[in-house]
Amino acid sequence: xxxxxxxxxxxxxxxxxxxxxxxxxxxxxxxxxxxxxxxxxxxxxxxxxxxxxxxxxxxxxxxxxxxxxxxxxxxxxxxxxxxxxxxxxxxxxxxxxxxxxxxxxxxxxxxxxxxxxxxxxxxxxxxxxxxxxxxxxxxxxxxxxxxxxxxxxxxxxxxxxxxxxxxxxxxxxxxxxxxxxxxxxxxxxxxxxxxxxxxxxxxxxxxxxxxxxxxxxxxxx
Length: 221
What we know:
Elements: H1 2-20, H2 25-37, H3 41-59, H4 65-76, H5 85-92, E1 102-103, H6 106-123, E2 127-135, H7 144-161, E3 167-172, E4 175-181, H8 185-202, E5 209-216
Parallel strand pairs: 1-3
Antiparallel strand pairs: 2-4, 2-5, 3-4
Helix pairs in contact: 1-2, 2-3, 2-4, 3-4, 7-8
Protein name: Bacterial transcriptional activator domain-containing protein
InterPro entries: BTAD, Nucleotide_cyclase, Rev_trsase/Diguanyl_cyclase, TPR-like_helical_dom_sf
Organism: bioreactor metagenome
């Protein structure tokens, strides 16, 4: 009981500290560790996702390895008891009817990429990755407000113009990375060009200029 009270005090203290220092990742780590000690895995996941969004939106960085380790521990222990396959399928399914590409965090994109690379090594299937970047006119950097607005709009355009089997993640403050299964180089460039034209059509007054590159996914030998 005393240990639970101590961990609860840490949670409360970290919550107050975050109000003062919202970008201090170490405080979030203490908070997540206390939440995990209390058995509150869902709060750990929510805290991590909130911190990750905050760090990425303001500094373009991903959480540190220590933070990701706490998150993975929480994700591993969400189901405290043995569950049947039917329940797991319900947990794994996407909610509702989803259209367009799968949007995920860059950390999860890396896992999907590595899994796809293994498949390509075995099957020889064509898979390409593409990078779409946003800059200001004459390659000048955009203001923070303009960049945030541009990236939100670009995300919607990318997801809406890709297939359900495609995957997309924001990999920097001004870039999205795409995975395009069953697409050759020419098709991948056509897809990116379609996204650029769709963005220009939907947001003709945007101060952003888009560019893209595409390369085949080459598995490790």
